[in-house]
Amino acid sequence: MRLILSLLLLFISVQLKAQTVSTSRPWTYWWWMGSAVTKNDISAQLEYFNKAGIGGVHIIPIYGAKGYESGYIPFLSPEWIDVMQYTVQEGNRLGMGVDMTTGTGWPFGGPNVPLDRAAKNMKPVNEKLDVTLTEQKVKRAAPGGEGYVLDPFHPSAMTQYLSRFDSAFANARNLPRSMYNDSYEAYGANWTTDFPEQFQKRRRYEIGKQQSLLIDSTNKEDGILVKIDYHQTLAELLRERYALPWTQWSKAHGFLTRYQAHGSPGNLLDLYETADIPETESFGTSRFAIPGLRIDPDYSINQFGTPNPLAMKFASSAANFSGKKLVSSETGTWLANHFKVSLSQIKPQIDELFTAGINHIFYHGATYSPENETYPGWLFYASTNFGKNAHFAEHFPFLNDYVQRTQERLQSSVSDNDILLYFPIHDLWATQAKSPGNVHLLEVHHVDRWLLDLPFGKLAQWLWKEGFTFDYVSDLQLGRLNVDENGNVITGNTSYKTVLIPASTYMPEETLAELKRLSGAGAKIIFDQHTPAKITGFYNHESRQKSFADDISNLLKNKNSKVSGSLTKDLIANGAMQEELAGKGLSFIRKKTGDGKALYFVANLGNTFKEDWIAVSKPALFSKYDPLQGESSLPHRTNKGKTEIFLSLLPGQSCFLQETHTASTVPFRNFKPNELVINGSWELTFLEGRPHIPAAAKLNELKSWTMLPDSAVYFSGKARYKIRFDIPRQLLGSKSVLLDLGDVREVATVTLNGKSIGTAWSIPFQLPLNKVLKSKNNILEIEVTNLSANYMRLRDQQAPEWKKFYDINIVDITYKKFDASKWDPMPSGLLGPVKLIYY
């Protein structure tokens, strides 16, 4: 009894010490190289983050920098716990949150993982199952974190691993908000000590006696069934022995959890849902067709794939299903090569995440760097640099303000999706795996390997393009659904109009039983094209198959269940709404505010829409809120019984559509805008930057300053463009005037006639002008800041000593040795054309 009381008091004490913080601001990964940190520099960098608009940091200890070995602090040592607590304390002072990885580098592992609990690989060899260690060790480990990767399927490996943190945290007074579990990268792991016993218990036959079927490559029916059983057993063990023990331990210690389930050989929906904050990942660039959006030609799609919102929706679906407020993302990884990423490239990637249901951005990221370290400081090998030495550091607050305003609305609303799309993972398990260990790893990188090419993926793509709103649902989650009096399926937090089953071959009998239960209770169920043909499970398959076929037949006799003949028609008949926004080429997410009003976030990530009348499914009036420009009214009309709004949204722009009860007084304009190109002699003056200030120049036409003589080809910094111009009388009387800067490399701050106009940092580079123009002798000044890439071309020729890190050191976007000296110059400055657009 005394022990129980002591544990209870400890639990309450720890909970009181954990943080509660605001999450509307974006957060950032914060790599501690060698954990060679000092309290003074921790404070200085947190103060920079706070001033820039960052809401919190995520500590990830990794390998160190050469020459700083004496400052390394071993992970979880008393000294490390001290600086961690100091960071939390400083975060509290500044109103910032702190998360940390439950380990160093990735995946979980370290010095307290003995060989018997290290990751294992099984290969059938000569009629025997040959089990060996994968020999994988923690990747990018920090001092004190080196060691074997733990066996993710082992009955006690996770518990033993976490015992090290129990000891380290025992006397800690200031604790992080959340623990973090990185993407599953236990390559080749496909077995554990008691796998044969667990397999027989769960699947009711011995895996060792069916190894010939397990390795069969001829697509025999029995071989497929054994492979499915094998994968299902791995998936169950991963959830029960890896994800759940970690999240339960974290909860017992007062921590939230952020979990990147992707990459796992399990059902991502079930794994993501175990965490408080499911986290997806945006790696690389999505190749948006936005005019003027720069894409790094060196990025290898074959090597890394591209981000895809349908993969991101696994995390948001798990959160929506269980009513979790936050869904996060590792954001901005390898958008472009080091020193080449602009704010204008980052915004569309974030907008894609928002439309996929993400609302808690974590930049990837920033590296702790000593304050006295020379430029460019310490850098992580694979990130976009969001740290203090980033070339966009001065203008970073503009992006963060945008993210904060957007996330405030996304986090204070709930999803409003109509369709639950069943994820038939057994059909995936029936195919040949393309990953190490001959198991399916559901990565966010190569979604073509497990998502896009399957009927499920093709159906999800069709729903996305056709404007239907949906979440995914797993076999396990189906068992938690109920049905209300209107036939909606409900999770307790969210309701859906219909359950949609993709064209699939295999289905567990338990899943079919849940569909029968739901249909009998009034839920509307649609099978796309055809019903599943086969039951899963090798055991007693033939007799179970007959019952399965009978149950399918009986299910279809219920009026609530049908095989679709016209999917669009059937979905709408079941209450699903088809949003015209998608048909216009716009990406969107539909949500509801706390008082039940409709809220849409809309992003123009293509080049097919500029402005048009659009019908929205909700019969209501809407206003427009642009996180960059503020709120405005929208023209409305009724057309064929539908309410339509006139929406202007150029490629690269985004906005909210907010339900309102006030009718718009804005008249519809049915005329095209006029344009005036500003030509003449531009004065170009370089203001500040590296390696030194080039000579001033006069330009009769706008062009990259790298084409100028002197050292401008290597210049990284800020320059001012100045021009005088007159305007015609009709422009002066215009009701609306925009300054369009054309192609900007990379950020432009504008002053007109001595008055500040604003800063243009995202596509399209436009700023509104309000009664600042005059008919004669207007003076336009545009300060443009470029990337640091051109300076690094020179730096790597003359002084490449900054590349001094252990492990992988610093590599380029193809993971080859980094050498900027071979780069071509990056276009820089104001490329234009600069023009006035007026109505």
Describe the overall structure.
The structure is a single chain. With 839 residues, this protein is an alpha/beta fold. It has four domains: 2-411, TIM Barrel (Alpha-Beta Barrel); 419-573, no CATH class; 580-660, Immunoglobulin-like (Sandwich); 674-838, Sandwich (Jelly Rolls), CATH 2.60.120. Helix content is 28%, strand content 24%. The chain has 21 helices and 43 strands. An eight-stranded parallel barrel has the order 1-2-3-8-9-10-11-12, surrounded by six helices. Strands 13-24-25-31-27-28 form a six-stranded antiparallel sheet. β33 and β34 form a beta hairpin. α11 (343-355) runs parallel beside α12 (396-411) and α16 packs parallel to α17 (541-556). It is globular and about 90 Å long. Mean pLDDT is 95; it is low at 1-17.
Write the layout of secondary structure elements.
Layout: H1 2-17, E1 27-33, H2 39-52, E2 56-62, H3 78-94, E3 97-101, E4 109-110, E5 120-125, E6 128-133, E7 148-149, H4 157-169, E8 178-181, H5 195-203, H6 211-214, H7 221-252, E9 256-259, H8 268-272, E10 277-283, H9 301-304, H10 309-322, E11 328-333, H11 343-355, E12 360-367, H12 396-411, E13 413-415, E14 419-422, H13 425-429, H14 455-466, E15 470-473, H15 475-478, E16 482-483, E17 489-490, E18 495-496, E19 498-501, E20 506-507, H16 509-520, E21 525-527, E22 534-535, H17 541-556, E23 561-563, H18 567-573, H19 580-583, E24 587-593, E25 598-603, E26 611-615, E27 621-626, E28 630-632, E29 636-639, E30 642-648, E31 654-660, E32 674-677, E33 682-690, E34 697-699, E35 716-725, H20 729-732, E36 737-740, E37 743-745, E38 747-752, E39 755-760, E40 766-769, E41 778-785, H21 789-798, E42 829-832, E43 835-838
Parallel strand pairs: 1-2, 1-12, 2-3, 3-8, 8-9, 9-10, 10-11, 11-12, 14-15, 14-19, 19-21, 20-22, 21-23
Antiparallel strand pairs: 4-7, 5-6, 13-24, 16-17, 17-18, 24-25, 25-31, 26-30, 27-28, 27-31, 29-30, 32-43, 33-34, 33-35, 35-41, 36-40, 36-43, 37-42, 38-39, 38-41
Helix pairs in contact: 2-3, 4-7, 11-12, 16-17
InterPro entries: Beta-mannosidase-like_N2, Galactose-bd-like_sf, Ulvan_degrading_GH
Keywords: Coiled coil, Hydrolase, Signal
Signal peptide: 1-18
